[in-house]
Fold this protein.
Amino acid sequence: MTERQFIPMIRAAREGCQERIRGGFPLQEHWSILRPAMADPLAISLPRLRTHLEALSRFGRNPDGRGITRSCWSGAHEEARAWLLGRMKEAGLSTWVDEAGNTFGRLGNGGPSVITGSHIDTVPNGGPLDGALGVLAGLECLQTIHESGARTRLPLMVVAWSDEEGRYAGLFGSSAFAGKLDAKQIPRLRAADGERLVDAMARAGFNAYDAPKARCNPKTLSAYVELHIEQGPHLETAKIPIGVVEGIVGNRRNWVTFRGQSDHAGTTPMAWRRDAFMAAAEYALRARRLIITKGSGRSVTNFGRVEVGPGVSNIVPDRCVLLHEMRELEPRVLARLERQCLALARSVAKKWRLKVTVDPISKSQPARCAPRVMRCVEAAAAGLKLKVKRMPSGAGHDAQNLALVTDSGMLFIPSQGGRSHRPDETSDWRAIERGANTLLYTLLELAG
Ligand SMILES: [Zn+2]
């Protein structure tokens, strides 16, 4: 489809809500049914939520019929946005899209808002629940409340944040909303394939330079709560239906470069060599050990890239670069681990008679969830007789940006096999229903 055909179609779709339905996605049902056991029978409609999840999963479905590729600002994403706006209107919400492409639906007026939501973009070849669940369960909750005739003291909003997955810039929409988007960076933001954010947004009918205008007034916010699949195995393993997120881990990403000396790989005695790769390999193994034994017990680390130079079989490597990442919820533990890894890199370099440099790429501080939101999630789960477990989120989420401007929190439901960011990412329909009902009562609690 050409751009000329595409933009008017999206505009029409944003108003007229065209629905495109091609095939469903399989979610398995094997857990027992837990009905909300409260005097108040208010409950979400699982059939409607399921229909919506299946419908959304068809936008950006790959030709093989399995994975979903719905990067922000792509044609599939903009069709999905138009579809979502249609569902929001149908649910009786007032709707708008802000300058950063965040899509909002609101129920009620006056007073600071209680917000829920997540994102509708996916990673390449992703699954049907990451993000989509939080947006559509949020919509389902607002629709349920609206149809029940119940009035909350505070207005409720559901939002789909832009580019959470970071084709151009991770957590883009919520960063703009939280006022932490650096306007000077906008022309420099590019996808891995080189495409500029400015061009991608223009194609979808947005002006990227206006995105910082999406900055919120924190006085208009009361709280944010996001439902998400866990994307890890902990809840499923523990057979616990609801995870109450204590915070979102912070990270450190560094280039660790060892510099030695290139020599003939056939003639140089082993003891003479100043082999940059061997030092890097020793550092990687020992840093992993350090983070397991000296971290919080939940600290994790990863070496996502290794470059060896000059990179031929008959020359001893004189250069080895590691892309080293570590994540942890406790800020002091994270800072200490980073210092200890730096000391370790220096001592390994000395042992191999090399030089080492550590260059930071990025760092994020851990974001604590608001105790008030955690207590509301726990009260909602207790009302539904659901067990909970407090846990950190090892993955980044928009809730960490919202924590900068309001009381922010998250709840998780189990991911089957801990699988996510892949086509077979799935959860159980009853688990989804339990999560959505817990979100419903959390929102009612937060909004009074
Ligand atoms: Zn997500």
